[in-house]
Specification:
globular, 6-stranded mixed sheet, 5-stranded parallel sheet, about 15% strand, about 425 residues, alpha/beta, binds pyridoxal-5'-phosphate
Length: about 425
């Protein structure tokens, strides 16, 4: 399987490459995002559904055909997906929760980050000088990447996060590692962290001293593995109800949503797909008929979805034209008040404690999916983070403490350490002698 840039036809450069190359490069040379040259058509027979790692191996095999990692795909999937995934039916309703938060950092980003790390470990095994992965994070990404790469030979991870703008538990997940992982607490907003990383990538002196790479959510090595849990969940749900389910997905940068679309394109039994955003309304405005108009992001309670210019829209628009997109998919937004109300409602009425991100999707299911569409359908609402990660939002609303799961608790018990950094490139460069 070959991958091409979303901008290949514009730039006129036929720059196709293998999965491994796309994963190592991150972004295509013309600034576009890597997409499969052709979506493989897979068939999924009815019957008992194998564990996620086996479904993932089967699903990903055509994408890695002819790739240096082809023979190791089984090992990579089993190493990366070594934690539970759960599909929880809600009593008396035609809806289930797909719990993707049982990994080391209690959010769905563990799936992509762990798969990426397992790939890099094998691709870098014979490299002479270590690779430095630079990540700017506004919350969950940095923690998942740090956890996934911690202790691996030949790779160092440096995470930059904005002082005072991540939750205390998120900060702890960024700063508790040590060894090959360093955390920089930057005196500035997330945009300043991102700018430092971008400037570092193009700094000639630094590039002469270090081999740099990124692990952000546009990397193919994070997207492809995410599609495999949609294959798994749709098969499991079809097995339970006899029909293809529909999905409601909490959406920020559209990586998780796009993964579901790719799974559908590859023949997974998926009916309707709905993208639920917070008050960052770029995506729902587009699906309501407005032209594509990226905005600056605004801060909300569901902070891992505070994205005003979702990068993966470029991949979605590569797959379908705008009219097709609006016919096939739908989207809605939710403000902070509605998120709070939803958390209270689901605690009382459904006995489910939701994180603010998952609450946006449950709100969309309750209020924005027309009865006519919902009737006779089974829906899966995607639960992207454990509520204990956002206890400062959730606990005051439900009036009790949220029990911290064991994986998260053991991280919170580790000592934490961060380097305080002014938002200046020179200050960062001093750490790469
Ligand atoms: C990153 C994240 C999202 C948004 O996912 P995208 O792939 O960026 O759309 C939603 N919920 C949580 C908890 C996240 O960490």
């Amino acid at each position: 399987m070959q991958f091409r840039s979303t901008r290949a036809s514009l730039s006129g450069v036929a720059s196709s490459c293998s999965a491994s190359e796309a994963i190592t490069r991150g972004l295509a040379a013309d600034g576009g995002l890597y997409v499969p040259a052709k979506m493989p058509a897979l068939t999924w027979p009815e019957g008992p559904v194998p564990p996620l790692a086996d479904v993932a191996t089967q699903f990903l095999t055509p994408f890695f055909e002819g790739d240096p990692l082809q023979d190791q795909l089984h090992a990579i999937c089993h190493e990366a997906f070594n934690f539970p995934i759960d599909l929880v039916p809600l009593e008396g309703e035609a809806v289930s929760l797909l719990e993707l938060f049982h990994g080391p950092t209690a959010a769905f980003k563990d799936f992509g980050a762990r798969f990426l790390a397992a790939c890099f470990a094998r691709l870098e095994a014979s490299a002479d000088d270590p690779l430095t992965i630079l990540v700017a994070t506004s919350g969950d990404t940095g923690g998942a990447v740090a956890a996934a790469f911690h202790g691996r030979q030949g790779v160092a991870v440096d995470v930059l996060f904005p002082r005072g703008q991540v939750s205390p538990r998120q900060e702890h997940q960024l700063t508790c590692w040590g060894d090959n992982v360093r955390a920089f607490r930057v005196d500035g907003p997330f945009d300043a962290c991102q700018k430092l990383v971008k400037d570092a990538f193009v700094h000639p002196g630094l590039n002469a001293r270090r081999r740099l790479s990124s692990a952000n959510s546009i990397n193919l090595g994070r997207l492809l593995p995410q599609a495999s849990y949609y294959v798994w969940a749709s098969l499991a749900q079809r097995q339970a109800t006899g029909a293809a389910p529909s999905f409601v997905i909490p959406t920020g940068n559209l990586g998780n949503g796009l993964a579901c679309v790719w799974a559908q394109q590859c023949g997974a039994p998926i009916n309707h797909i709905h993208f639920a955003t917070n008050d960052n309304r770029t995506v729902p405005r587009f699906f309501a008929g407005d032209p594509w108009t990226p905005k600056d992001s605004i801060a909300t309670l569901a902070n891992a979805m505070d994205v005003g210019n979702p990068s993966n829209m470029e991949r979605l628009r590569d797959l379908f034209d705008d009219d097709q997109l609006r016919q096939r998919f739908s989207a809605s937004f939710v403000n902070d008040d509605a998120i709070r109300q939803q958390i209270v409602h689901d605690e009382r009425e459904r006995g489910q404690t939701l994180c603010p991100h998952t609450a946006t999707a449950m709100h969309a299911y309750d209020h924005h999916i027309a009865r006519s569409v919902r009737d006779g359908q089974h829906y899966v609402v995607v639960a992207t983070a454990h509520p204990a990660k956002f206890e400062s939002v959730v606990e005051p609303l439900i009036g009790r403490e949220v029990e911290v799961p064991a994986n998260l608790r053991s991280l919170l018990e580790l000592p934490s350490h961060a380097v305080d950094l002014p938002a200046q490139l020179d200050a960062l460069l001093a750490y790469y002698p």
